[in-house]
Amino acid sequence: MAHGQRQVHVDRSARGGRRHRPGPARTTPSARDGVTAADDDRGAPEFDARAVPFALIAWAVVGFALAVDPRPVLVVVAAVAVCGALAGLVEGLRAHALRVVAVALFGVAVAVGALVRVDAVREHPAAELATRGAHVEIDAVVTSDPRRTGGGVFQVIGADLRVVRHHDAEVRGRGAIVVTSSDRGWADVGPGTVVRFDASLAAATRPDLTVAAARAPDAPRILAPPPWHHRAATALRERFAEACAAGLSADPAGLLPGLVVGDTSHLSVRVQRDFTAAGLSHLTAVSGANVSIVLGAVLLLVRVLGVPPRLGAVAAGIVLCAFVFVARPDPSVLRAAAMGAILLLALVVGRRRQALPALAVSVTALVIVRPELATSWGFALSVVATAGLIVVVPRCVERLRERGWPRALAEAVVVAVVAGVVTAPLIAAMSGTVSLVSMLANLLVAPVIAAVTIVGAITAVVAAVDVGAARYPAALAEYPLRWVVAVAEQAAVTKGAVLQVPTGLAGGLWTVAGLVATGAIVWWLLRAVFGVGVSGGVGGAWQDRVCEFSFLRAAPGIGTGIRHVGIRQRSSRAGRRRASRRARGLPRDRWGRRQREPGSGSRGDPGDPHAGR
């Protein structure tokens, strides 16, 4: 090509009806875009939401099938598929109709699978005995750790049914049951143990695949110990708890295992009650943060050792499976582990790693493989909170960063607010309470949670080798854990900290209405107090600013003053120049503001005729 000639690239995708904004074409990302070649996926949207409809339809279909009846769901989804197919005959609706048909047909397949599973539970012999309140002898495999209810009197565990004996009849068949007992002998029974016990059956009240509820008056008889992997996981949990007890005082010693592996068996009832009232109970449920720490540590180690990335991803996957056994496969653990596994798979095959598709695929797979998760409050809270962190938090953090907030402060504030807002309706529907101090409490403990979790993970690894040596890293978390306990205690005793609302759908709707009303009042007060006026008139172009409050620029600075006030800011030449600087990826100054290029028309520069206006 001759010198000075311009190479022209023709974008043939425009023939498909796409409209492109005018401007210089970009063929490869640059370093200032913050995108590397490995992560680049040209043409991909910021959030790839193609898998989201499939996750929503699978979750809705399975949840409704378990809670009500799968047959109406099957009819409705099939009708939608037929309507979509008929709409596909119309030329202008063909592309959209194909998407609707694909999602609806997927929903039909999921509904059929749910129908088969629900019918199998309803026709189980133990379900028929439960309706009569029969007294039976049961052989079962324990599937969960005992947990205290009603002031610690009852032990509630999950079990997988194997054999039911009633009088002289013996019925074999697998099914999930829930066992309650006041006998202390159940407290030492761990997952994987094969037990035999006498019980009276009752109909299951949970909207899941539970066959029956069993009330056992006596301790179980052990038929077989747990397999080796369950024994190893239980031993690690016990050694970790022993190291915490040796290196920490009472309340921190019970809290650290809960933060790291979700073990709340050593946490006092008072602390549990305070955490619930303060809206901090989610800290003792293993979630994505724990999985991120585990996977991040493994991937960092294999990189230091020079292991190839794909082998490192395989090693991280093995460690992830071991972590699931140690933390127990609770709903939040399964969600986080599924997302981690999908992201590791993307690393192995060399695909772009995106959180939203990973979440959608995880939800779809989990509700199909384990339908009972579709009606689990813990699973719903985990998914909703994760979706809020993926979709909302990055945008709001970037807005605050543009106004000079330090990244750590912006992330702490936004995460606490977003997590509290998106989960409040579910918590209200589940428990009938709304914590008015949860956002503040989460914001106060956020600076220490990550460090405490890392220290706890190190303690657990050391405890696997030497319990005596593990007490020393555990002691480092003493005062941070005391701070967390103190925040929960003060939040719980605050007068009016908990608001009572109806349970179920009514409570969730009331909470949503309250959040909307609160947001509107805050918005109106900001306009009134800070003098946000309405100007413009006919032809005035307005730029909506979501999650943007310009007066917050002054918060992290000292003596900077309130420079700008505005929730909706009219588009101006200065605003367009700032947007241009963001698009060109210009560096930021110490306050997070975009720097100007030399001679670009800063205030007082005679090269810009509009400077200073």
TrEMBL record:
Q: Where is this region: Disordered?
A: 1-42, 568-613
What is the superkingdom listed in this entry's lineage?
Bacteria
InterPro entries on file? ComEC_N, Competence_DNA_uptake, DUF4131
Basic residues compositional bias: what residue ranges? Answer: 568-585
Residue ranges under compositional bias (Basic and acidic residues)? 586-597
How does this chain sit within the bilayer?
Multi-pass membrane protein
Tell me which UniProt keywords the record has, alphabetically: Cell membrane, Membrane, Transmembrane, Transmembrane helix
Q: Does the keyword Cell membrane apply?
A: yes
Q: Name one GO cellular component term.
A: plasma membrane
- Report TM segments: 51-67, 73-90, 97-116, 280-302, 309-327, 333-350, 377-397, 409-431, 443-469, 507-526
Q: Please report the stretch or stretches of sequence annotated as the ComEC/Rec2-related protein domain.
A: 259-524
Chain ranges of the DUF4131 domain: 72-202
Query: What compartments host this protein?
Result: Cell membrane
UniProt xrefs under PANTHER family: BETA-LACTAMASE DOMAIN PROTEIN, DNA INTERNALIZATION/COMPETENCE PROTEIN COMEC/REC2
Q: State the protein's name.
A: ComEC/Rec2 family competence protein
Organism of origin: Rhodococcus rhodnii
Source taxonomy = Bacteria, Bacillati, Actinomycetota, Actinomycetes, Mycobacteriales
